[in-house]
Structures are given as C-alpha cells and as structure tokens.
Amino acid sequence: MDKKLYPAFGVLLVDDELPWLRSLSMTLEGPGGITNLQQCHDSRQVMSMLEDHDIGLVLLDLTMPYRSGEELLEQIVTEHPQVRVIILSGMNQLETAVNCMRLGAFDYFVKTVDEERLVDGVRRAIRMVELEQENQAMRRRFFANQLDSPEAFSPIVTDNPAMRACFQYLEAVAPSSQPILITGESGVGKELIARAVHDLGCNGGTLVSVNVAGLDDNVFADTLFGHVRGAFTGAEGARKGMIEQAAEGTLFLDEIGDLSFASQVKLLRLLQDGEYYPLGSDLPKQMTARVIVATHADLEAKMAAGEFRRDLYYRLISHHVHLPPLRERKDDLPLLLDHFLGRAAAKLGKKKPTPPKELAVLLSTYNFPGNVRELEAMVYDAVSIHNAKTLSMKSFLDRIGQHHELPALTKDSDPRNPFVTLDELPSLQQAGQLLVDEAMQRSAGNQTIAARLLGISQPALSKRLRQDRH
Fold this sequence. Notes:
470 residues, alpha/beta, Rossmann fold, Helicase, Ruva Protein, domain 3, five-stranded parallel β-sheet, 12% strand, elongated
C-alpha cells in the first residue's frame, strides 16, 4: 500500500546548502507531518520543476548562487500565481523582509526561528493553497453541473438537486486534510456520506467508524489513542487505538455533539497538533488519518448553552455539509421505494413485489421523522408479510396512521392555525371546501388517501364531493 502523502500537492524546498535541506525536510516530516516534499539545491532548476511537477508551495532561500531568491520570487509570482512562496533567510533584515512581502511572498522566516513557528507557518500556507484549490474545484463542478467520480456516491439513491449539490461540494473538498462536519437528522445517511468521502480522498487506508455518544472521557481516550502495556489496571497488553487503525485512511466519529467536555478538549488538541499519546506512553504518534465527524444535534445551540466548545466547533466547521431530511426531497421517494423493495426481496428470498401506483402518493403525504431509515424499515416490514403479486398498502397505512394524530389545541392561539392572521374568517362551508380541495390535491385525486389526511372515512369524503358538485 502506497503511503498517503500530505499535502496532496508538492512542497518544494529550495536551498544550495544540502545539510540545511536535509534538516528542513526532517523537521517538516517529523513534527509537521508534511511528507509530500521535493528538494532543489540548484536555483537554475526551480522554474523547470514548477513546470514539471504539481507544486503548491515553495520554501525559498534568499541567498544562492546563479539566481537569488528575490529574482526567483518575482518570476514565480508572475508565471505561477497559484503557487505560494515562503522566504527563508539566514539574515534577520526588516527591509529585505518587507520587500519580499511586497513582491508577493506569503511569509518570511529567519532560518534560526524555532521549529514550531516554522512548521505552523508552513501549515498555514498549505491551508491557504488547499482552500484556493477547493474553491476552484467547486466553481468548476457547479458551473459544469457534473461529478468527476459519480461511482463514489452510487450507494446513495437520489436524484434530488440539493443532494447533488452536496456531492459536488464533497468532491471538491475530499482531497483536503481538514476535518469534514456532516450534519442532518437521524436516518438521512450521514454514514453513507462519510464512506463516499473516504472513497474519494483515500489512497488505500481503511475507514474506521466510532460512535462516541455515551463514551466517558477515559473510554473515549482509550478507544481513540489506544494504550501501552501496564497503562492501567488490567492493561496486560498493548492495544492499538482507532486512530492507528485508520492510518492513511479515515476516522469517522459519529454523534460528535454528544461528546463530553473533557473529551472535546482531547479531540481539539488532536486536530490542532496532528499527534497523540497512547495512554501510558511518553512517545507521541503522528495522526495520518483524515477525520470526518457527524451529528444530528444543533451544535450552535449547544455552544450557546455552554455544552460544546467554540474553538472545537470552528476547527470542525472548515468543511461542512448539511444533508436535507427526506421530507425535503420527496421527489426521491419513487427511487428509494424501488431500491428498498429490491433489497428487501433479495434479503428475504422473495420475488420483488410490484407496488400499487397509489403507494408513492401515500408516502408523499407523510413527513418521515425517521427519514430514509424509517422508509427502509417500512418497506422491509411490508415485504416480509407480502404473499401476493401486488404489494399490500395495509402495513404502510397502519404505520403512517399512527403518526398522523394532531396535538391537542390549547387556549392560546396555535401558531400553526392558518386562520390566525386573517382579518375575516371564511365560513365553515368555505373552509371545509378548501380543506377538501387541498387533500385531493396532495393525494393526486386518490380519495382513500385524501380521506386519511382529513381524518374521515372514504365514503364520507365521497358523499361530501358529490354534494359539492351539486
């Protein structure tokens, strides 16, 4: 398995001193975790290397034979404006630094600066290049209205424009090293989205999923970081954490909104430093997994209530996709119904049943609080008791009927009452007629479904319709 390089683009180190190049490479690869490095010790070769390789960032020495750093900086900014340049100088000269920044350098460091500051500066530059490349990719995909890798999303059954926009966004940010936050109600398919992002952006590592809801701080730390032998009572052997198991792949943390405050601190440090300590160990390990998190909770509301750290939220929100609930993508119901019928029949060893044409209409009248997962359960239940050519609607009618009860009205005005804002109320006859018309519209003219929406019997509705015609 080829080791995944970070970042996705190359970082070119330019200096005529070979010992310094080796030392700089070790610093960036070790504490920095920056592995996609190329070296150049001859300033005359820099421009040809930019032409021949996918370089996003250049660390450029100022004082070199043949061509100076300032001369190269001007040419790089002119001919390769998408490439960021960090100047490294052996001299701390303010005037030179100001001139380099004026020429277009992203940053300027003296070679004697401490390693941590230098690594942080390189990471900032990498992040800037990643953001620019993501923005370009998003513009290209949205304007072309295309997906470069539609196969990654094939397990997600949809033809909905909002879902397609989510896919285009995820394709653009998949190569990034930053976390991705997936939000949406329970049952919308957040796990499938995490799998798609993993397939898009991974070079062969595995996807490791952890549901962190209900984990106390010690269990969370042991689950993610692992432990060495003797770390605590009962630790008779070393244990790899989920981060190590996901090396070069993806770590998916589900229900991140339920993480304890103490565990939030640990996750924040992991994302900031890119390294962690197995329990009982003094030796840090580098995290090489991509982190994807998901939640059904409203993180902004949790922040306001003091239950979720703001600094962690802003670290996670770098890339964010919100999946619409099924009630906002009812155009997908026929596709999903057909898909789940086939899957349920295959699991149960039955022939795929034919659904009645009214079934999709019936389902469109329901809001599906459990989303796609609830629809799948409905279909599986119906197919399990199916024994005729045409699928019976009875189990669907029974399930939907249980959730169509209206809450009791209170003395105060109900904000959902459509008549609250009217200056003049319609007559009971007029209101009834409008309600019947709307039910018939929503049910596509099916009296059985319309009657259920209205809470009356089908014969009563039929009688009402006959009366209205006369």
